[in-house]
Specification:
The chain is mostly helical. It contains four helices and no strands.
Length: 102
């Protein structure tokens, strides 16, 4: 019994078939509904805000400060959420720093 080793051309052909099959599966998927995407994004945002609130130690307002002033002080203690552009800039800076080390 002899087993034939696949040639380079056979490998290229099977890779092309696998790529076409994967692309066809991707094309056959229904597009995402914008409403669902927006809901997911909102859930992630609320979860992130909740984590930030839990992570930050609560600051007590002075005895004379109650009500709206205390709420304003609590809101000021929570850092503002960063925009996607700011997140991308920070990621790019980390990447450049890592590249500079190499």
């Amino acid at each position: 019994m002899s087993f034939k080793e696949p040639s380079f051309q056979d490998g290229i052909g099977s890779a092309a078939k696998a790529k076409e099959k994967a692309l066809e599966q991707l094309r056959s998927k229904p597009p995402l509904d914008e409403r669902v995407v927006a809901e997911r994004k909102a859930k992630r945002l609320t979860a992130r805000v909740g984590k930030l609130r839990k992570a930050r130690p609560r600051r007590r307002a002075p005895a004379g400060c109650r009500g709206q002033a205390a709420e304003a002080a609590a809101k000021a203690a929570i850092p503002p959420l960063r925009t996607e552009a700011e997140l991308k800039a920070a990621r790019d800076a980390r990447y450049a720093k890592r590249k500079a080390r190499k």
